[in-house]
């Protein structure tokens, strides 16, 4: 063999002849695939285990962090940006309501949602839309007409309305000398026009409609329109059963003589040296019966408020400042401004079961007090039985000083509810009437 070739063959044999080979000069047999993948598979498995361990560690850290934050959220105060305003605290109300918390929640809902549609029909220069005046003992009716236009409750969209206001003023008719018969005809024709022109009355037969009247002529004029009295809500100053007042449907409108002659009475207990003051009519049966006993009594006094008002003197009003208890008899049709007078001047109203109305004219078997379903009158007035009137002085003297102080403080707290304003303000007489209407807004759909 050629030397160069031999050396190459020998070199080949030397390099390939190692343990595990089959024969010199031959290539080794192929390695099985399982053996080729043995070492890479072990490496991959080791890397995979490392990744899983890392993920588990990260997840554990995340869970621990979340648990730590959750626990600290109950113990550490939250810090807000200084420009964020905290939510207002719940308003604290005095304990003169049947349920202060219910009143607070319902009143807030009323302010946010209540809508009233005022029918735009009727000539404002005659008997519709505008009040006759805002003074005198029938000012409550006039103020309501004025306030409803100034308030947030009025809506021009009848489809958004909860209630519908019928703006007919019997007081203006009375001022123009209209007879009762003609008043009834005017009211009947006006309501009939609303029924034919609009679909709203017929949806509920008038159950979601209301009207306001404070003068006793309004009661007489509307009595001739039975569907109005029976179906719609009446806000009246004569809330007695003998005129068909229905407490769960109708609203007792407070009769308030505005403007008040003097400022409101406050915490002036030390100045109240007169035990009781009877602001009754000169010809009332009870006044005549008790005049001999009280005429010269320094503790219980009688005054005829008609004379003092007519002559313009302030004796009547000033006497309220010196009196502990004011006896509030009713007048014609049971309506009277004496209750609001007593409350304004800080004098505790003294009443029998019907505000002494039956004692004077035997007009009423029941008298529904203004806002009776809202205010707890037991907290700021005295309610006596009819037969207890002759023992009134002894009963009043038997009231403890602590009881009187509690009653007087409650009277001061409700004064704002018996005040009309223009424009209306929160919690005044207008808003309390609207709240009473709000409670009656759920009409039955026929």
UniProtKB/TrEMBL annotation:
Keywords: Glycosyltransferase, Golgi apparatus, Membrane, Signal-anchor, Transferase, Transmembrane, Transmembrane helix. It is found in: Golgi apparatus membrane. One of its GO terms (molecular function) is glycosyltransferase activity. It is a single-pass type II membrane protein. Residues 111-397 form the Exostosin GT47 domain. GO terms for cellular component: Golgi membrane. It holds the Pfam family Exostosin_GT47. Its main location: Golgi. It comes from the Eukaryota. The chain crosses the membrane at residues 49-71. Belongs to the glycosyltransferase 47 family. This is Exostosin GT47 domain-containing protein.
């Amino acid at each position: 063999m050629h030397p160069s070739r031999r050396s190459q063959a020998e070199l080949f044999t030397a390099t390939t002849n190692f343990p595990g080979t089959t024969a010199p000069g031959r290539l080794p047999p192929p390695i099985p695939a399982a053996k080729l993948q043995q070492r890479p598979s072990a490496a991959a498995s080791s890397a995979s285990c490392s990744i899983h361990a890392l993920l588990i560690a990260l997840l554990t850290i995340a869970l621990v962090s979340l648990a730590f934050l959750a626990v600290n959220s109950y113990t550490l105060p939250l810090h807000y940006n200084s420009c964020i305003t905290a939510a207002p605290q719940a308003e604290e109300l005095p304990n003169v309501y049947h349920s202060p918390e219910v009143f607070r929640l319902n009143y807030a809902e009323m302010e946010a949602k209540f809508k009233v549609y005022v029918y735009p029909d009727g000539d404002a220069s005659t008997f519709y839309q505008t009040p006759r005046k805002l003074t005198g003992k029938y000012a409550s009716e006039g103020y309501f007409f004025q306030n409803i236009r100034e308030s947030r409750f009025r809506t021009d969209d009848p489809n958004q309305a909860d209630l519908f206001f019928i703006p007919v003023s019997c007081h203006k008719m009375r001022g123009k000398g209209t007879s009762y018969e003609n008043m009834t005809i005017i009211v009947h024709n006006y309501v009939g026009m609303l029924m034919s022109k609009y679909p709203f009355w017929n949806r509920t037969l008038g159950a979601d409609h209301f009207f306001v009247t404070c003068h006793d002529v309004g009661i007489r004029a509307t009595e001739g329109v039975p569907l109005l009295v029976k179906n719609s809500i009446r806000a009246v100053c004569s809330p007695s059963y003998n005129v068909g007042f229905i407490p769960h449907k109708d609203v007792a409108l407070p009769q308030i003589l505005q403007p008040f002659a003097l400022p409101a009475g406050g915490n002036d207990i030390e100045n109240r040296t007169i035990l009781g003051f009877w602001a009754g009519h000169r010809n009332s049966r009870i006044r005549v019966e008790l005049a001999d006993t009280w005429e010269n009594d320094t503790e219980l006094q009688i005054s005829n408020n008609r004379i003092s008002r007519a002559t313009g003197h302030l004796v009547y009003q000033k006497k309220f400042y010196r009196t502990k208890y004011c006896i509030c008899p009713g007048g014609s049709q049971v309506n009277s401004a004496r209750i609001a007078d007593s409350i304004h001047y800080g004098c505790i109203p003294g009443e029998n079961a019907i505000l002494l109305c039956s004692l004077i004219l035997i007009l009423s078997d029941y008298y529904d007090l203004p806002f009776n379903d809202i205010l707890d009158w037991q907290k700021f007035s005295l309610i006596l039985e009819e037969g207890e009137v002759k023992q009134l002085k002894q009963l009043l003297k038997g009231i403890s000083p602590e009881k009187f102080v509690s009653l007087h403080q409650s009277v001061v707290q409700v004064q704002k509810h018996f005040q009309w304003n223009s424009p209306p303000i929160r919690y005044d007489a207008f808003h309390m009437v609207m709240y009473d209407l709000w409670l009656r807004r759920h009409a039955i759909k026929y």
